[in-house]
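Supplementary Text 2. Reproducibility record for the structural model of the 327-residue chain.

All settings were left at their defaults, and a single model was retained for analysis rather than an ensemble. We include the record here because the model underlies the residue-level annotations in Supplementary Table 4.
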Amino acid sequence: MVKAIRFHETGGPEVLKFEDVEVGDPGPGQARVRHTYIALNFIDIYFRTGRYPLALPEGVGSGLGSDAVGVVEAVGPGVTEVRAGDRVGYLIGPQGAYSQARVLPAEVLIPLPDGIADRTAATLMMKGMTAQYLFRQVYPLHGGETILYHAAAGGVGLIACQWARAMGVTMIGTVSTDEKAALARDSGCTHTIVTSRENIVQRVREITDGKGVPVVYDSVGKDTLEASLDCLQPRGSLVSNGTSSGPVVIDTRLLAAKGSLWVTRPAMVHYIQPRSHMLEMAGELFGHVLAGRIASEPKQVFALAEAAEAHRALESRKTTGSTILVP
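Retained model, structure tokens:
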């Protein structure tokens, strides 16, 4: 038996329960991983609240989380991707990362380089790979662009700041406080906009001499939608990669009126497959980290049993950078 977070109904953080669960031996194509660190992501809140529905069988409920690092304890028949003793991380697969150990498909496991510690890797799997697919695939940046990025002091945001700097991209980042603005600038964000006292559209137009930006990366959603569209150049692109403030609803006639704009709502699962491509993505990310161009450490650490408190902290928007759970 191991300890794991499970929930039997959707709702607030209080629905998360610390329970005993059985972890058996891995079957064909599977591996059993003993976790060292588990990452907290905003999408976990969507599953907990029911915005993204999960099956909750009576008496069984569901696990939570899809992002963790650890050590392979055993592999099942036919597994060639990893071996027992390998240090690995993952960011896709069945929900259930909020646990001391689990069995999952071996094909989702990514071997970790010797030069990257587990604690660091726990901040990179989902968040670093998100920065990779946003900047290198969804709207590929090549250097020299000026972009707008919302929530620049968040877990993905601080990695994005550093990635933009490494590529020679001028990043305008929105944040909610002056403290977060300083953190984003220290990480490579060229300009910051403190949304509690500054007008996003006005500041972007000032910074770009009235031109606007070719792309906005917006993980906030409902509260920033209008400003995001108004910051774009004609034929610009809105990458709506999250909805922390609420769902986005767009009248397509508005896109024409504001300059024949493009909108995409990407999902990691469509950019990370097949496995060979996932490993290439991870290799690019790890290369930046090993070269010193990207540094990432958790800003908040909670015990696994305190997952509910970690969710409250993340929902309050008082956190910066990455939050991890320790089994």
